[in-house]
Amino acid sequence: MGKFVVYKTDTGYLFHLKAGNGETIGTSELYASLAACRMGVASVQEIAPFAALQDLTVATAQSMENPKFEVYKDVAGAFRFRLKAANGEVVLASEGYTAKASCEHGISSVRRNAANAILIEPAR
Questions:
Q1: pLDDT at 89 over 90
Q2: What are the boundaries of each domain within the chain?
Q3: I need a surface site. Which of 50, 78, 83, 93 has the fewest CB within 10 A?
């Protein structure tokens, strides 16, 4: 079973979505409050299972509405994905992958793990 693990930083909160094996699948943006971070988790849980997939690495990439996963290449040439909410905000982003298939596998893992993942918050 997946887990959303929330971390408190010096400037706010962020979360990692972890697969059942403990590997981090994606990381959130920084949130100013714990409540906003919880809303980010809820957004990923709600949209990840059905979000469309847009491949920006191909010349024929068509424009798509949010929510969606975007697959892209970063400046170092690694494949990455980001999950955008209905309002266009990035709610989850991946690490870099050397192969596009591995990046797509990461998206599949988010889809499988997000909906029923447990939430682990920092101690107060």
A1: yes
A2: 3-120
A3: 50
Beta bridge partners, 56, equal: none
Say which CATH class 3-120 falls into. Answer: mainly beta
Cα 65 from Cα 15, distance rounded (Å): 25
How far apart CA 66 and CA 21 sit, in angstroms, is: 29
Determine the pLDDT at residue 114: 96
Interval 4-32: pLDDT, tens:
999 999 999 999 999 999 999 999 999 99
List, in sequence order, the alpha helices (H) in the chain.
34-47, 100-114
Q: Which residue has the tokens 């943006």?
A: 29
Residue among 124, 123, 121, 113 nearest 5 (CA) = 121
Closest CA to 72 of 44, 100, 107: 100
